[in-house]
Write a structure and sequence with these properties.
single chain, alpha/beta, seven-stranded mixed β-sheet, 13 strands, about 20% strand
Length: about 375
């Protein structure tokens, strides 16, 4: 095990014991006093992960301030990003970046594989940086709760990269359900066309690590394994150690509208049906049944999730076929069908349209920037 991996695992252990992150000393914990920004003052961003979704996240940051540092474990990706941001200092290890440039950074974006979200975001927050972290927020529920506690103590502005939440169509759809367009809801069905990567498979054969990839740092806190073709840059989503499967990749989008509409928090029961798996790669498909308890505003609701080509019966909405992804909300007055991942359009079946009001967004990333400025 290299020193790099020792440091990652040491940082994870310290967090588990309630201490601060990585090389950040306990003697300075919670001592940070945040800088306040005027409306015209420039925010200095550092970006961890600048390929794929990280490319657009870095672009959003660049539209709202200065990119002073960029980090990626893939030197080809880093080199490409450096051409866009020639004034940014480059790193292949975010820990070194945060340590060396702590006084020059105001805010951090984290756009890496799921298994490294927690430690990267935690270190950024612990050093007093406003932090944007891509979805899914973390690799486990425990990690998400710990990040919440840390952000509350540090009093920084944080956001998860779930851009669809800002879309007017999705907000209007949620408002329609909240304001009773289908009456009392009795069940919900949500499905996705993911995975579009391989799952339910054996590990790839060991292969030489590409010269441009820092594989040891890419592994981060995950158990050591040899490099194999298919992990980097996209196939990692299908492996338990790195990704969160179809549910972790897409539920934050396709589940988002009914979550907003019906306050679907803290299920009392979660039961999954799959074709089986090897404990290493996620199953090729799953049907997951959630039971959400009643609230002051609605009764208990069963919600069923489908992935890997599984869908709810089309007969549920009087169809021969339904979209490759979407959501169906069943109520006493009718049914609400929203094909696609973001409720871009909706169809009422047996229910009459109503006028609704809902809060509009200035834009997903802009919400975070406004919060950094004290909004």
């Amino acid at each position: 095990m290299s020193n790099s991996r020792r440091d990652f695992l040491k940082g994870a252990a310290l967090l588990g014991a309630g201490a601060t992150v990585g090389a950040v000393g306990a003697d300075r914990a919670w001592a940070f006093e945040k800088k306040s920004f005027s409306a015209n003052e420039t925010i200095n961003f550092a970006c961890v992960g600048v390929g794929g979704k990280g490319d657009s996240d870095t672009g959003d940051a660049g539209k709202n301030g200065n990119i002073v540092a960029i980090c990626d474990v893939d030197e080809n990706t880093l080199r490409k990003a450096a051409q866009k941001y020639p004034n940014a200092k480059t790193y292949t290890d975010y820990r070194k970046m945060l340590e060396e440039m702590e006084d020059s950074i105001d805010a951090v974006t984290v756009s890496t594989p799921d298994h490294t979200h927690f430690l990267a975001a935690a270190m950024a927050i612990d050093t007093g940086k406003h932090t944007f972290c891509q979805k899914p927020l973390t690799h486990s529920i425990w990690e998400a709760r710990e990040l919440g506690k840390l952000a509350k103590r540090k009093k920084v502005a944080t956001q998860m990269g779930n851009q669809g939440t800002a879309n007017e169509a999705l907000r209007k759809a949620a408002a329609l359900i909240r304001q009773g367009v289908v009456g009392t809801v009795s069940e919900v069905h949500v499905w996705t066309n993911r995975p579009v990567w391989e799952q339910g498979i054996a590990r790839p054969s060991e292969a030489p690590v590409p010269e441009h990839l820092h594989w040891d740092t890419w592994l981060g806190p995950a158990p050591v394994r040899p490099y194999g073709k298919g992990y980097h840059t996209f196939g990692w989503r299908g492996w338990w150690d790195f990704g969160t499967g179809a549910l972790g990749d897409m539920a934050c989008h396709t589940f988002n509208m009914p979550f907003m509409a019906l306050d679907l928090k803290n299920p009392t029961s979660v039961v999954a049906q799959t074709p089986g798996h090897n404990g290493d790669s996620y199953p090729s498909w799953s049907i997951i049944k959630f039971q959400f308890p009643k609230t002051d505003d609605r009764p208990a609701i069963p919600v069923t999730w489908y992935d890997g080509g599984k869908k709810p019966p089309a007969e549920l909405i009087d169809r021969r076929d339904i979209a490759s992804s979407g959501c169906i909300v069943v109520g006493e007055k009718g049914k609400f069908y929203a094909p696609g991942d973001y409720a871009e359009r909706v169809e009422l079946i047996g229910a009459e349209a109503i006028e609704v009001t809902y809060p509009k967004s200035p834009g997903h990333f802009n919400e975070w920037v406004r919060a950094i400025r004290g909004g």
